Amino acid sequence: MKTTSRSGTASAAPPPEEATAPPGESRVVDGFLRASFPFYGLDQAFTGSRWLLRTGIGADGDVEHGATGHGDTPSYLAEAGLRDHRFTVVVTVASRPVRRSQDGTGVLDATSVSSAAWLAGSGLLSCTWPARMERSMREDWLAQQTGVAWDLADELQGPGWSTLTLPVDGEPVPFHYRESEYGWVLAGGARSGVHVGAYGRGMSAYGLAFSAIEDISGYE
After folding, report:
1. Predicted local distance difference test score (pLDDT) of residue 23
2. What does the pLDDT look like over 57-67, one tens digit per residue?
3. How many beta carbons lie within 10 A of that of residue 32, not counting itself?
4. Is the pLDDT of residue 134 over 70?
5. Region (Disordered) spans which residues (predicted)?
6. Helix (H) or strand (E) segment spanning residue 150
């Protein structure tokens, strides 16, 4: 699969609670402002709350991806009531044909739609883990489910995915789409040369539309 390594992306979509920088530290939005590509979110038809997750940085220090949230901020404090949250997170991945490895000794494969699918799938898992499970068992569950998400992202033409066409910047774009007991995940492309993924729960993916964000500071 032409995507980043598991170790390089497993922490790419942290819980939204981690998205607020402590006083004296850089703001979360600063990472988005450093990027050389546009980020995507739900279009203006969505009138609910908007918030930022963190950006992902490559070995060369460049921003490679970032995520924007819409709707309820998922709670990670208790499993009870978790299913009641309604949210959509949009992941934007820069199109990078060649990237250096973390140790600087080689290069990684180009980013692709599979990269967006992997980040979206792992992001959904990050807000659906069974909080009441004993810690070691929870870690095993996360490792197992993360492996499944990785394999699914590697087989976007496989039976685990269907096709869903949604507007991106006003133009119809086909997305790879799948549902699970935890929520839904989709991934596709955009005309601006980035890869777009999304995940959510409680909000139907079928009525969504995406657009490039003109002012990312509006998500703070």
Report:
1. 42
2. 887 788 999 99
3. 23
4. no
5. 1-25
6. helix 135-153
Q: Are 52 and 17 in contact (CB under 8 A)?
A: no
3-class SS of residue 90: strand
| C-alpha to C-alpha distance for 157 and 155, rounded to whole angstroms | 5
CA atoms of 101 and 19, how far apart (whole Å): 26
**pLDDT higher than 90, residue 149:** no
User: How far is it, in rounded angstroms, from Cα 106 to Cα 9?
Assistant: 17
Kind and range of the H or E element at 65? strand 63-71
**Tokens 């870690």 map to which residue?**
139
Q: Could you tell me the sign of the dihedral formed by the alpha carbons of 60, 62, 65, 66, in that order?
A: positive
CB 12 within 8 Å of CB 65: yes
Quickly list DSSP for 165-219. Answer: EEEETTEEEEEEEEEETTEEEEEEE-TTSEEEEEEEESS-GGG--EEE-S-GGGG
- Written as one string, the DSSP assignment of 77-129 is S-STTGGG--EEEEEEEE--S-EE-TTSSSEEPPP-HHHHHHHHHHHHHHTTS
Contacts of 7 (CB under 8 A, 6+ apart): 102
First CA to last CA distance, the chain: 34
Residue with tokens 């950006």: 55
Residue type, 4: T
Q: Half-sphere exposure of residue 179, counting CA atoms within 13 Å on the CB side?
A: 9
